[in-house]
Amino acid sequence: VIAVSPKIIEISSDISINEGGNVSLTCIATGRPDPTITWRHISPKAVGFISEDEYLEITGITREQSGEYECSASNDVAAPVVQRVKVTVNYPPYISDAKSTGVPVGQKGILLCEASAVPSANFQWYKDDKRLVEGQKGLKVENKDFFSKLTFFNVSEQDYGNYTCVASNQLGNTNASMILYGPGAVHDGNSGAWR
Question: What is the model's pTM?
């Protein structure tokens, strides 16, 4: 019997899938003796192999299961051969942090809205029901992949009030409200209002 080192001849392409969907990955290898195929998730939390078969099935995939999956083909003739498939799991935005903040008149104030989402969220800011646009006098909106920052360079009485951050992507949107308030403002626990 001629020994032949393993070779992966077919492997699934990188895929993008919405959270909750089903994923089926395939890894076909040749060699003599027939190689053993194993799949593992390359992740800090992953433990050992998740499949000892050419096929890896994941039903109802979660965002924690995104990342790279490695197929390994081994038959003791030579070192195992490995290849990876990238699985991207899309999910709607989730706002993880949005705090009200108190700033005296004349000072610089910042409202921050943090959101995780795949694809990255688009952010919009509203005061009451009015959309704030970049370049409004005394305001700066800075959007990054995971957060949006609304900066007031010189807070005036008119700036105080309720602000809403809206984070959206193709899968949905969510919003959070926060308040820019002045010194001495008291939060009324009963009504939830600031005065």
Answer: 0.84
